[in-house]
């Protein structure tokens, strides 16, 4: 089956100009339902002559964009190339096109008819600037939709110089909307891998103005690229810096609560690993941890290769899971989400079993997608509802 509009283009019933207007009005990819839980999804590009086009999606074994092997095909007599794939109808995913040709290397570009959404730029460059497909049965992310429509909130920006680490990083601080009463001591969330264009402050604003969460500050902490793969991998020195330098620095400048139940540490991927590990080891500082697709399969001695060396490989229990198994339950509430279609969900399920057996107050969910900011940006709203619901004196669930 092919999309009806592509059929009209290929038969000449529609001119390329009319087809282009259709794409601009309807958006891409084009979706046709074929049964109760499956759809045919047609991607369209207009790349120019002598150019091959392939699709890559953030679903699959690779952390990042996974290539789909089939090339786009030309629609005869037009400048368009198309690729139709049958998919489950509940997916949401980031994707890019790779354009190549005899005179150039493959270049990754977003879908020209589906520009990247507002919060598509992120700290990890290989994930940034992607288009997002939302298939008809995908779980809605209404608070992300509202956040994308809002003006950017005001933020303070400062540089935190760490004496213990011997480096510095940018920190962005976003206070909640509205006037604060005198003597306020706001709850707050510290988000690792922070950028000034992160969705978290706008999502927070939408929830606060809807009366669903307590007014809270959002702190976005930059991870310098050269240090990210060290600092976020269960690094005791970095975790101590957050407790001993960042928190006092924040309390000196802003009216923030000192109750650990009012403090959340959040992160995605490596950042989620760091958030969970730091909260476990510093529960008097962080009473909440937000783990979005955490890299909880990490262990410094856990590597994979090929050849005879594999015959001697021993697989240790990953660090975050091992530390939870070895310790008494900490007074930390944990929000944990992961993609159903990403390789790390096996370790996430293992971690959730351990946390549940230990008696943690935790919420775990899987979403229909991969290791993908397209989900994390919106599910952060659920994390805030979990951590700071309005009327939270009894720590009741949202």
From TrEMBL:
Superkingdom of origin organism: Bacteria
Read off the InterPro entries from this record.
AB_hydrolase_fold, Esterase-like, Ig_E-set, Mycobacterial_A85_antigen
Q: Name one Pfam family in it.
A: Esterase
Q: What is this protein called?
A: Enterochelin esterase
């Amino acid at each position: 089956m092919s999309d009806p509009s592509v059929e009209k283009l290929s038969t000449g019933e529609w001119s390329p100009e009319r087809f282009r207007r259709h794409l601009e009005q309807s958006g891409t990819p084009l979706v046709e339902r074929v049964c109760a839980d499956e759809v045919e999804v047609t991607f369209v590009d207009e790349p120019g002559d002598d150019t091959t086009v392939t699709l890559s999606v953030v679903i699959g074994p690779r952390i990042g964009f996974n290539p789909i092997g089939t090339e786009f095909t030309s629609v005869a007599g037009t400048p368009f190339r198309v690729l139709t794939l049958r998919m489950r109808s509940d997916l949401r995913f980031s994707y890019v096109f790779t354009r190549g040709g005899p005179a150039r290397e493959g270049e990754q570009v977003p879908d020209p008819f589906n520009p990247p959404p507002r919060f598509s730029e992120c700290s990890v460059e290989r994930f940034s600037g992607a288009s997002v497909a939302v298939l008809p049965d995908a779980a809605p992310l209404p608070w992300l939709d509202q956040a994308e429509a809002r003006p950017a909130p005001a933020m303070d920006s400062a540089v935190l110089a760490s004496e213990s680490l011997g480096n510095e990083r940018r920190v962005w601080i976003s206070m909640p909307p509205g006037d604060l009463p005198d003597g306020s001591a706001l709850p707050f969330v510290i988000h690792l891998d922070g950028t000034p264009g992160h969705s978290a402050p706008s999502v927070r604003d939408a929830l606060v103005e809807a009366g669903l969460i307590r007014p809270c500050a959002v702190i976005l902490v930059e991870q310098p690229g050269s240090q990210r793969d060290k600092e976020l991998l269960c690094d005791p020195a970095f975790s101590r810096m957050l407790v001993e330098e960042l928190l006092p620095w924040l309390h000196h400048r802003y009216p923030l609560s000192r109750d650990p139940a009012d403090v959340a540490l959040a992160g995605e991927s490596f950042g989620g690993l760091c958030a969970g590990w730091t909260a476990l080891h510093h529960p008097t500082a962080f009473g909440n941890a937000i783990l979005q697709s955490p890299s909880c399969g990490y262990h410094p001695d856990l590597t994979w290769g090929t050849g005879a060396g594999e015959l001697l490989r021993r697989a240790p229990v990953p660090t975050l899971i091992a530390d939870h198994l070895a310790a008494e339950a900490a007074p930390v509430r944990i929000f944990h989400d992961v993609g159903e279609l990403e390789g790390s969900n096996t370790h996430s399920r293992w971690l959730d079993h351990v946390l549940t057996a230990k008696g943690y107050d935790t919420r775990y969910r899987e979403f229909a997608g991969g290791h993908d900011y397209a989900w994390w940006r919106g599910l952060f709203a659920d994390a805030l509802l979990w951590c700071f619901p309005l009327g939270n004196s009894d720590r009741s669930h949202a």
